[in-house]
Design goal:
Number of strands: 6
Helix content: 55-70%
Shape: elongated
Strand content: 5-15%
Largest sheet: 6 strands, mixed
Strand order of the largest sheet: 1-2-3-6-4-5
Number of helices: 19
Number of domains: 2
Distance between the termini: 75 Å
Length: about 425
């Protein structure tokens, strides 16, 4: 059995189930009961679902997944992982093919940094607890291969998930996300094995989801709620009458509700809307052009108010405020002196250009001056484990320069505009 053929069979079953699957609810049986804190059985019509809630860095989860698949002998196993993440775990990610300059030019710097930060957090936990992140998912796949059981990689592509989370977040939501990501890299807080096991408790996860919803509601909706629906739909349409699902414990309750809604016909059996990147909000499309217009308008107003002297003074002060803060950001990222100078000179200009950000300029210059070496690609998984490693490795260092210089310029813009306005009084 190969995974590609399995994927094709799964797609076929999706179409068949959608058209001919059991849709007479009066003749169906729908029950849900927890076997334990981590295993939930759900029967919908003639199909039985066994949901195994895991913690992604738990030794106990790895063993439990193996035991349940061997014991239940399901017709299919659905694993909460997408093709991209599966390949990165199996192939240990071919970082040698990464072109950091191209990533920045395609405006994917934040996405790459988010991916690396998430990998960093899980890898640190895994090293502390002696288990690789996602090992329970790989174990499920390997057991299926060994036993000849069909399996499906059922999660939504990680790139789509991250891009939807970023696009749907407000300006302040984006800043909260960046702050949360950076704090996860720089934190020294550790979780022991007992605390990891508690993460599989339903009550613990309920509290965590409520906290996430209040802190970042749009992110919680994309990372949890949408994926609950996506995973449930993939499960509902999967071939076979007995299906084991290996999923993160935080998704169990949501998947059960979505499976029941699919059966009742109150939820559309289609995930295409969840696999598209929503267009940016109108204000997000206008803002890159509005800010330069405001700045230029203020400088022109200065000319009409007091002539060239005020206008030139405002221009110089704009350069000083915006350029200095961007340069400070680059300095905090330990950028090359030439990159720091480029941040100072480039930020005031790129702030007036909606198509180019200063992070693109500083990132490419830093990548040119300190081109990633073979050792940087080879050591990236280990360097992600520490604060020092993020700065030492040239790949992550370039991304930090990109990020910090961009943050500095953004601060300069939002400080500079009120400051220029005050000069007109």
């Amino acid at each position: 059995m190969n995974r590609e053929n399995t994927g094709n069979a799964d797609q076929g079953s999706s179409n068949s189930q959608t058209k001919h699957g059991p849709n007479n609810q009066e003749n169906s049986q729908l029950t849900s009961r927890p076997d334990s804190e981590t295993v939930t059985r759900l029967r919908i019509g003639d199909k039985e679902f066994i949901l195994v809630g895991t913690a992604h860095v738990s030794k106990e989860s790895v063993e439990e997944v193996r035991e349940i698949i061997l014991k239940e002998e399901p017709e299919r196993v659905c694993v909460e992982i997408d093709e991209t993440r599966y390949n990165s775990l199996v192939k240990k990610q071919q970082w040698q093919s990464l072109n950091i300059g191209q990533v920045l030019r395609e405006r994917k710097g934040f996405l790459l940094l988010a991916n690396l930060v998430l990998s960093s957090f899980q890898r640190r936990l895994g090293v502390e607890l002696g288990v690789a992140p996602g090992e329970e998912m790989l174990t499920a796949v390997q057991v299926c291969r060994d036993q000849g059981i069909a399996f499906s990689l059922c999660d939504r592509d990680i790139q789509i998930t991250l891009r939807r989370a970023w696009t749907r977040s407000s300006f302040w939501g984006k800043n909260k996300m960046l702050a949360a990501m950076l704090s996860s890299v720089f934190t020294r807080e550790k979780l022991d094995a007992e605390e990891i096991e508690r993460l599989k408790s339903r009550s613990t996860f309920q509290n965590m989801m409520e906290e996430l919803a209040s802190f970042l509601p749009s992110v919680k909706e994309v990372l949890i709620d949408e994926r609950d629906r996506y995973l449930a739909t993939r499960l509902y349409n999967a071939a076979g009458r007995k299906i084991v699902a290996v999923i993160g414990a935080g998704h169990v309750e949501g998947i059960v509700k979505n499976l029941q809604a699919l059966r009742a016909g109150t939820l559309e059996n289609d995930t295409s809307a969840l696999e598209t990147i929503p267009s940016r909000k109108k204000i997000s499309r206008i803002l890159p052009y509005l800010i330069p217009a405001i700045i230029v308008g203020l400088i022109v107003a200065g000319f009409f108010r007091s002539g060239w002297s005020l206008s030139l003074s405002m221009m110089w002060k704009w350069v000083l405020v915006n350029g200095t803060l961007s340069a400070i950001g680059s300095l905090l990222a330990l950028a090359h002196p030439i990159t720091i100078a480029a941040a100072f000179l480039g930020a005031p200009i790129t702030s007036l250009n909606p198509t180019v950000g200063v992070g693109l300029v500083t990132g490419i210059i830093e990548a040119t001056l300190r081109k990633p070496r073979v050792t940087d690609f080879e050591n990236l998984p280990e360097d992600l484990l520490s604060f020092r490693g993020f700065f030492r490795n040239r790949i992550t260092h370039i991304l930090l320069v990109f990020l910090f210089s961009s943050i500095g310029s953004s601060l300069g813009t939002f400080i500079g505009i009120p400051y220029l306005t005050s000069l007109l009084r």
